[in-house]
Amino acid sequence: MPEPRDWDREWLELSAGALDAVSRADTLEAVEAARVDLLGRERGRLSALLKSLKDLPIEERKRLGPQANALKDAIEKGLESRRKALDAKALDAGLAAARIDLSLPPPPWPRGRRHPVSETLREMTDILSRLGFALAEGPLVENDRNNFEGLNIPADHPARDVQDTFYLRDLPLLLRTHTSPVQIRHMEANKPPIRIMAPGRVFRHEAVDASHSAVFHQVEGLYIDRRVTMADLKGTLSLFMRGLLGPKAAIRFRPSFFPFTEPSTEVDVRCLLCAGAGCAACKRSGWMELLGAGLVHPNVLRFCGIDPAQWSGFAFGVGVERLTLLRLGVPDIRMLYENDVRVLEKLS
Ligand code: FA5
Fold it and tell me: Is residue 268 in contact with ligand 1, taking CB distance under 6 Å?
Protein backbone atom coordinates (compact mmCIF):
# COMPACT_ATOMS: atom_id res chain seq x y z
CA MET A 1 0.00 0.00 0.00
CA PRO A 2 1.51 3.34 -0.93
CA GLU A 3 2.33 5.78 1.84
CA PRO A 4 -0.42 8.38 2.28
CA ARG A 5 0.64 11.74 0.89
CA ASP A 6 1.84 14.21 3.47
CA TRP A 7 0.19 17.32 2.10
CA ASP A 8 1.25 19.58 4.85
CA ARG A 9 4.93 18.72 4.50
CA GLU A 10 4.86 19.12 0.69
CA TRP A 11 3.07 22.38 1.08
CA LEU A 12 5.52 23.73 3.65
CA GLU A 13 8.55 22.79 1.56
CA LEU A 14 7.15 24.37 -1.56
CA SER A 15 5.94 27.63 -0.03
CA ALA A 16 9.15 28.07 2.00
CA GLY A 17 11.45 27.83 -1.00
CA ALA A 18 9.30 29.31 -3.79
CA LEU A 19 9.39 33.04 -3.06
CA ASP A 20 13.01 32.78 -2.06
CA ALA A 21 13.91 31.21 -5.43
CA VAL A 22 12.07 33.96 -7.27
CA SER A 23 13.78 36.77 -5.38
CA ARG A 24 17.22 35.19 -5.99
CA ALA A 25 16.76 35.04 -9.81
CA ASP A 26 19.28 37.61 -11.04
CA THR A 27 18.88 37.33 -14.81
CA LEU A 28 15.82 37.25 -17.06
CA GLU A 29 16.71 33.65 -17.93
CA ALA A 30 16.78 32.70 -14.23
CA VAL A 31 13.35 34.35 -13.72
CA GLU A 32 11.95 32.32 -16.59
CA ALA A 33 13.51 29.11 -15.20
CA ALA A 34 11.88 29.78 -11.80
CA ARG A 35 8.53 30.36 -13.49
CA VAL A 36 8.75 27.07 -15.37
CA ASP A 37 9.88 25.22 -12.23
CA LEU A 38 6.95 26.52 -10.14
CA LEU A 39 4.12 27.41 -12.50
CA GLY A 40 4.93 25.49 -15.71
CA ARG A 41 1.80 23.78 -17.00
CA GLU A 42 3.43 20.36 -17.45
CA ARG A 43 6.01 20.06 -14.68
CA GLY A 44 5.57 23.10 -12.49
CA ARG A 45 5.68 22.06 -8.84
CA LEU A 46 2.89 24.38 -7.68
CA SER A 47 0.76 23.51 -10.73
CA ALA A 48 1.11 19.83 -9.86
CA LEU A 49 0.14 20.45 -6.28
CA LEU A 50 -2.90 22.48 -7.32
CA LYS A 51 -3.96 19.76 -9.75
CA SER A 52 -3.81 17.06 -7.06
CA LEU A 53 -5.97 19.07 -4.66
CA LYS A 54 -9.01 17.57 -6.34
CA ASP A 55 -8.17 14.16 -4.78
CA LEU A 56 -8.42 15.55 -1.23
CA PRO A 57 -11.44 15.44 1.00
CA ILE A 58 -13.57 18.54 0.83
CA GLU A 59 -12.44 20.00 4.20
CA GLU A 60 -8.80 19.71 3.20
CA ARG A 61 -9.55 21.26 -0.17
CA LYS A 62 -11.21 24.21 1.56
CA ARG A 63 -8.20 24.65 3.85
CA LEU A 64 -5.41 24.24 1.32
CA GLY A 65 -7.07 25.69 -1.84
CA PRO A 66 -7.06 29.38 -0.88
CA GLN A 67 -3.51 29.12 0.49
CA ALA A 68 -2.27 27.56 -2.73
CA ASN A 69 -3.96 30.22 -4.87
CA ALA A 70 -2.56 33.00 -2.66
CA LEU A 71 0.92 31.49 -3.10
CA LYS A 72 0.41 31.32 -6.87
CA ASP A 73 -0.54 35.03 -6.93
CA ALA A 74 2.45 35.91 -4.79
CA ILE A 75 4.80 33.98 -7.08
CA GLU A 76 3.37 35.64 -10.19
CA LYS A 77 3.75 39.10 -8.65
CA GLY A 78 7.26 38.23 -7.50
CA LEU A 79 8.24 37.07 -11.00
CA GLU A 80 6.80 40.23 -12.57
CA SER A 81 8.58 42.56 -10.19
CA ARG A 82 11.89 40.68 -10.75
CA ARG A 83 11.42 41.05 -14.51
CA LYS A 84 10.77 44.78 -14.18
CA ALA A 85 13.75 45.29 -11.89
CA LEU A 86 16.06 43.40 -14.26
CA ASP A 87 14.73 45.30 -17.32
CA ALA A 88 15.35 48.61 -15.55
CA LYS A 89 18.87 47.49 -14.60
CA ALA A 90 19.63 46.55 -18.25
CA LEU A 91 18.28 49.91 -19.44
CA ASP A 92 20.41 51.80 -16.92
CA ALA A 93 23.51 49.85 -17.96
CA GLY A 94 22.79 50.59 -21.65
CA LEU A 95 22.31 54.27 -21.00
CA ALA A 96 25.46 54.47 -18.94
CA ALA A 97 27.45 52.79 -21.72
CA ALA A 98 26.00 55.04 -24.47
CA ARG A 99 26.22 58.46 -22.89
CA ILE A 100 25.23 61.31 -25.19
CA ASP A 101 27.59 64.29 -25.16
CA LEU A 102 25.55 67.22 -26.39
CA SER A 103 28.62 69.45 -26.48
CA LEU A 104 30.30 67.38 -29.25
CA PRO A 105 30.31 69.01 -32.73
CA PRO A 106 28.18 67.22 -35.35
CA PRO A 107 29.89 64.95 -37.91
CA PRO A 108 31.15 66.93 -40.92
CA TRP A 109 28.76 67.43 -43.83
CA PRO A 110 30.25 67.42 -47.33
CA ARG A 111 30.11 71.00 -48.54
CA GLY A 112 29.44 71.95 -52.13
CA ARG A 113 31.61 74.52 -53.86
CA ARG A 114 32.17 76.15 -57.20
CA HIS A 115 34.09 74.22 -59.84
CA PRO A 116 37.73 75.46 -59.93
CA VAL A 117 37.28 76.74 -63.50
CA SER A 118 34.17 78.72 -62.50
CA GLU A 119 36.10 80.10 -59.55
CA THR A 120 38.94 81.32 -61.82
CA LEU A 121 36.42 82.79 -64.26
CA ARG A 122 34.71 84.65 -61.43
CA GLU A 123 38.01 86.13 -60.21
CA MET A 124 39.05 87.11 -63.74
CA THR A 125 35.83 88.99 -64.45
CA ASP A 126 36.00 90.51 -60.98
CA ILE A 127 39.48 92.00 -61.58
CA LEU A 128 38.63 93.16 -65.11
CA SER A 129 35.42 94.83 -63.98
CA ARG A 130 37.44 96.75 -61.39
CA LEU A 131 39.68 97.87 -64.28
CA GLY A 132 36.57 99.24 -66.01
CA PHE A 133 35.71 96.39 -68.41
CA ALA A 134 31.96 95.79 -68.93
CA LEU A 135 30.50 92.34 -69.60
CA ALA A 136 29.68 91.37 -73.21
CA GLU A 137 28.44 88.05 -74.55
CA GLY A 138 28.15 86.16 -77.82
CA PRO A 139 26.69 82.80 -78.95
CA LEU A 140 28.62 79.53 -78.93
CA VAL A 141 27.39 78.76 -82.46
CA GLU A 142 28.89 81.37 -84.78
CA ASN A 143 29.18 82.08 -88.47
CA ASP A 144 32.35 82.21 -90.53
CA ARG A 145 32.04 85.99 -90.90
CA ASN A 146 32.38 86.74 -87.16
CA ASN A 147 34.70 83.90 -86.21
CA PHE A 148 37.16 84.37 -89.14
CA GLU A 149 36.42 86.89 -91.89
CA GLY A 150 35.83 89.98 -89.72
CA LEU A 151 38.96 89.10 -87.78
CA ASN A 152 41.11 89.38 -90.91
CA ILE A 153 41.64 85.62 -91.04
CA PRO A 154 41.99 84.89 -94.76
CA ALA A 155 40.10 82.04 -96.43
CA ASP A 156 43.27 79.95 -96.73
CA HIS A 157 44.36 80.40 -93.10
CA PRO A 158 45.17 77.04 -91.45
CA ALA A 159 42.89 77.82 -88.46
CA ARG A 160 39.89 77.41 -90.78
CA ASP A 161 40.95 73.89 -91.54
CA VAL A 162 38.39 71.25 -90.58
CA GLN A 163 41.16 69.85 -88.37
CA ASP A 164 40.77 72.77 -85.99
CA THR A 165 37.15 73.81 -86.33
CA PHE A 166 33.91 71.98 -85.63
CA TYR A 167 31.55 72.87 -88.50
CA LEU A 168 27.82 72.20 -88.23
CA ARG A 169 26.60 69.64 -90.75
CA ASP A 170 24.59 71.13 -93.64
CA LEU A 171 24.66 74.65 -92.13
CA PRO A 172 27.05 77.56 -92.76
CA LEU A 173 27.77 77.64 -89.01
CA LEU A 174 30.50 76.49 -86.65
CA LEU A 175 31.28 76.21 -82.93
CA ARG A 176 33.30 79.31 -82.13
CA THR A 177 37.01 78.55 -81.88
CA HIS A 178 37.77 81.58 -79.69
CA THR A 179 35.93 84.43 -77.93
CA SER A 180 37.23 87.00 -80.46
CA PRO A 181 33.97 87.02 -82.55
CA VAL A 182 32.41 88.88 -79.61
CA GLN A 183 34.78 91.74 -80.57
CA ILE A 184 33.17 91.95 -84.02
CA ARG A 185 29.61 91.74 -82.65
CA HIS A 186 30.29 94.46 -80.10
CA MET A 187 32.20 96.86 -82.38
CA GLU A 188 29.48 96.62 -85.04
CA ALA A 189 26.75 97.41 -82.51
CA ASN A 190 28.53 100.07 -80.44
CA LYS A 191 30.57 103.20 -81.07
CA PRO A 192 33.95 103.71 -79.35
CA PRO A 193 35.18 104.23 -76.69
CA ILE A 194 34.72 100.54 -75.88
CA ARG A 195 36.01 98.56 -72.91
CA ILE A 196 34.53 95.04 -72.69
CA MET A 197 35.33 91.56 -71.42
CA ALA A 198 33.73 88.45 -72.92
CA PRO A 199 34.10 85.22 -70.93
CA GLY A 200 32.85 81.97 -72.42
CA ARG A 201 33.30 78.47 -73.79
CA VAL A 202 35.17 77.74 -77.03
CA PHE A 203 35.67 74.57 -79.09
CA ARG A 204 38.56 73.18 -81.12
CA HIS A 205 39.00 69.93 -82.99
CA GLU A 206 42.20 69.25 -81.14
CA ALA A 207 44.22 66.32 -79.77
CA VAL A 208 43.75 66.34 -76.00
CA ASP A 209 46.86 66.34 -73.79
CA ALA A 210 48.02 67.73 -70.41
CA SER A 211 47.54 71.35 -71.55
CA HIS A 212 45.03 71.03 -74.42
CA SER A 213 41.33 70.34 -74.25
CA ALA A 214 38.80 70.27 -77.13
CA VAL A 215 36.37 72.36 -75.07
CA PHE A 216 37.77 75.10 -72.89
CA HIS A 217 37.13 78.67 -71.75
CA GLN A 218 38.60 82.00 -72.73
CA VAL A 219 38.14 85.52 -71.47
CA GLU A 220 38.36 88.11 -74.21
CA GLY A 221 39.26 91.73 -73.50
CA LEU A 222 38.80 94.66 -75.90
CA TYR A 223 39.68 98.31 -75.35
CA ILE A 224 39.15 100.91 -78.09
CA ASP A 225 39.86 104.60 -77.51
CA ARG A 226 42.02 107.41 -78.85
CA ARG A 227 45.79 106.74 -78.97
CA VAL A 228 45.78 103.35 -77.21
CA THR A 229 49.31 101.86 -77.30
CA MET A 230 51.22 98.66 -76.48
CA ALA A 231 52.16 100.33 -73.16
CA ASP A 232 48.44 100.36 -72.19
CA LEU A 233 48.17 96.69 -73.13
CA LYS A 234 51.27 95.71 -71.14
CA GLY A 235 50.17 97.71 -68.09
CA THR A 236 46.66 96.25 -68.11
CA LEU A 237 47.82 92.64 -68.59
CA SER A 238 50.53 92.94 -65.93
CA LEU A 239 47.96 94.16 -63.39
CA PHE A 240 45.52 91.47 -64.47
CA MET A 241 48.06 88.62 -64.18
CA ARG A 242 49.47 89.82 -60.89
CA GLY A 243 45.93 90.06 -59.52
CA LEU A 244 45.32 86.44 -60.47
CA LEU A 245 48.67 84.81 -59.77
CA GLY A 246 50.11 86.98 -56.99
CA PRO A 247 52.73 89.75 -57.06
CA LYS A 248 55.63 87.30 -57.43
CA ALA A 249 54.41 85.68 -60.67
CA ALA A 250 56.97 86.11 -63.46
CA ILE A 251 55.47 86.94 -66.86
CA ARG A 252 57.04 87.57 -70.25
CA PHE A 253 55.73 89.16 -73.43
CA ARG A 254 56.81 87.22 -76.51
CA PRO A 255 56.39 88.54 -80.06
CA SER A 256 53.78 86.51 -81.90
CA PHE A 257 51.33 86.63 -84.78
CA PHE A 258 47.54 86.87 -84.98
CA PRO A 259 45.81 88.09 -88.18
CA PHE A 260 43.56 90.36 -86.10
CA THR A 261 46.26 92.21 -84.15
CA GLU A 262 49.38 94.10 -85.18
CA PRO A 263 51.78 93.99 -83.42
CA SER A 264 50.88 90.75 -81.63
CA THR A 265 52.21 89.18 -78.48
CA GLU A 266 51.77 86.07 -76.44
CA VAL A 267 52.08 86.22 -72.67
CA ASP A 268 53.72 83.35 -70.81
CA VAL A 269 53.87 82.81 -67.07
CA ARG A 270 56.79 81.05 -65.43
CA CYS A 271 55.38 77.59 -64.76
CA LEU A 272 54.34 77.55 -61.12
CA LEU A 273 54.08 73.76 -61.17
CA CYS A 274 57.80 73.18 -61.74
CA ALA A 275 59.12 76.68 -60.87
CA GLY A 276 60.55 76.92 -64.38
CA ALA A 277 62.44 73.60 -64.31
CA GLY A 278 60.26 72.06 -67.05
CA CYS A 279 57.37 69.59 -66.68
CA ALA A 280 54.62 67.94 -68.79
CA ALA A 281 52.19 70.82 -68.23
CA CYS A 282 54.62 73.41 -69.66
CA LYS A 283 55.97 71.01 -72.28
CA ARG A 284 59.41 71.09 -70.55
CA SER A 285 59.88 74.78 -71.41
CA GLY A 286 59.50 76.21 -67.89
CA TRP A 287 56.91 78.69 -69.21
CA MET A 288 53.21 78.30 -69.81
CA GLU A 289 51.43 80.18 -72.56
CA LEU A 290 48.36 81.85 -71.12
CA LEU A 291 47.11 84.37 -73.59
CA GLY A 292 47.33 86.01 -76.96
CA ALA A 293 47.07 89.76 -77.38
CA GLY A 294 47.96 92.76 -79.51
CA LEU A 295 46.83 96.08 -80.95
CA VAL A 296 43.61 95.67 -82.94
CA HIS A 297 44.44 95.40 -86.66
CA PRO A 298 43.19 98.40 -88.75
CA ASN A 299 41.40 95.94 -91.08
CA VAL A 300 39.30 94.70 -88.14
CA LEU A 301 38.39 98.26 -87.11
CA ARG A 302 37.44 99.12 -90.70
CA PHE A 303 35.37 95.91 -91.03
CA CYS A 304 33.30 97.07 -88.03
CA GLY A 305 32.91 100.66 -89.33
CA ILE A 306 35.46 102.23 -87.00
CA ASP A 307 37.98 104.69 -88.49
CA PRO A 308 41.53 103.49 -87.65
CA ALA A 309 42.84 107.03 -88.15
CA GLN A 310 40.70 108.19 -85.21
CA TRP A 311 40.67 105.15 -82.97
CA SER A 312 43.07 102.46 -81.85
CA GLY A 313 42.85 99.69 -79.30
CA PHE A 314 44.13 96.50 -77.82
CA ALA A 315 42.59 93.04 -77.44
CA PHE A 316 43.53 89.89 -75.57
CA GLY A 317 42.24 86.34 -75.15
CA VAL A 318 43.18 84.34 -72.01
CA GLY A 319 42.86 80.56 -71.52
CA VAL A 320 40.95 80.01 -68.28
CA GLU A 321 41.87 76.33 -67.78
CA ARG A 322 45.61 77.00 -68.17
CA LEU A 323 45.35 79.71 -65.54
CA THR A 324 43.46 77.36 -63.24
CA LEU A 325 46.21 74.71 -63.58
CA LEU A 326 48.82 77.27 -62.58
CA ARG A 327 46.87 78.73 -59.71
CA LEU A 328 46.06 75.37 -58.13
CA GLY A 329 49.21 73.46 -59.04
CA VAL A 330 47.27 70.84 -61.05
CA PRO A 331 49.51 69.09 -63.59
CA ASP A 332 46.91 67.99 -66.16
CA ILE A 333 43.95 69.83 -67.72
CA ARG A 334 41.96 66.57 -67.90
CA MET A 335 41.76 66.43 -64.09
CA LEU A 336 39.52 69.50 -64.25
CA TYR A 337 36.98 67.75 -66.45
CA GLU A 338 36.81 64.18 -65.21
CA ASN A 339 34.68 65.55 -62.36
CA ASP A 340 35.98 63.10 -59.81
CA VAL A 341 34.75 64.79 -56.61
CA ARG A 342 37.71 63.36 -54.68
CA VAL A 343 40.06 65.27 -57.02
CA LEU A 344 37.90 68.39 -57.18
CA GLU A 345 37.69 68.49 -53.37
CA LYS A 346 41.47 68.64 -53.14
CA LEU A 347 41.66 71.55 -55.56
CA SER A 348 41.23 75.12 -54.27
C1 FA5 B 1 43.33 82.95 -79.59
O2 FA5 B 1 42.38 82.17 -79.41
C3 FA5 B 1 43.11 84.39 -79.85
N4 FA5 B 1 41.71 84.62 -80.15
C5 FA5 B 1 43.56 85.20 -78.65
C6 FA5 B 1 43.63 86.66 -78.98
C7 FA5 B 1 42.56 87.49 -78.67
C8 FA5 B 1 44.77 87.19 -79.56
C9 FA5 B 1 42.62 88.83 -78.94
C10 FA5 B 1 44.85 88.55 -79.86
C11 FA5 B 1 43.76 89.35 -79.55
P12 FA5 B 1 45.15 81.17 -79.02
O13 FA5 B 1 44.72 80.15 -79.99
O14 FA5 B 1 46.60 81.32 -78.78
O15 FA5 B 1 44.61 82.58 -79.38
O16 FA5 B 1 44.43 80.87 -77.62
C17 FA5 B 1 44.48 81.77 -76.55
C18 FA5 B 1 44.73 81.03 -75.24
O19 FA5 B 1 43.76 80.00 -75.06
C20 FA5 B 1 46.04 80.29 -75.20
O21 FA5 B 1 47.07 81.16 -74.83
C22 FA5 B 1 45.81 79.22 -74.18
O23 FA5 B 1 45.92 79.74 -72.85
C24 FA5 B 1 44.36 78.89 -74.40
N25 FA5 B 1 44.23 77.70 -75.25
C26 FA5 B 1 44.39 77.59 -76.57
N27 FA5 B 1 44.13 76.34 -77.00
C28 FA5 B 1 43.78 75.64 -75.90
C29 FA5 B 1 43.37 74.29 -75.67
N30 FA5 B 1 43.23 73.43 -76.65
N31 FA5 B 1 43.06 73.91 -74.41
C32 FA5 B 1 43.15 74.78 -73.39
N33 FA5 B 1 43.52 76.06 -73.53
C34 FA5 B 1 43.84 76.50 -74.77
Answer: no
Rounded mean pLDDT, 197-207: 95
124 lies in the same domain as 226? yes
Last residue of a domain, which of 97, 132, 158? 97
Q: What is d(CA 188, CA 183) in angstroms, rounded to the nearest whole number?
A: 8
Residues 88 and 120 in one domain: no
Main-chain phi, psi angles of 25, to 5 degrees: -65, 115
Structural domain includes residue 105: no
- CA 177 to ligand 1 centroid distance, Å: 9
Distance from Cα 205 to the centre of ligand 1, integer Å:
14
Q: Which atom of ligand 1 is nearest to the CA of 290?
A: 23
pTM summary value: 0.71
Structural domain that includes position 173: 116-347
Ligand 1 proximity of 219 Cβ (cutoff 6 Å): no
Q: Indicate if ligand 1 lies below 6 Å from the C-beta of 237.
A: no
Nearest-angstrom CA–CA distance, 313 and 306 = 11
Per-residue pLDDT of 278-332, as tens digits, reads 888 788 899 988 999 999 999 999 999 999 999 999 999 999 999 998 888 888 8
Asked if 123 and 40 sit in the same domain, the reply is: no
154 and 70 within one domain: no
Distance CA 74, CA 228 (A): 108
Tell whether ligand 1 has an atom less than 6 A from the beta carbon of residue 315: yes
Q: Which atom of ligand 1 is nearest to the CA of 179?
A: 4
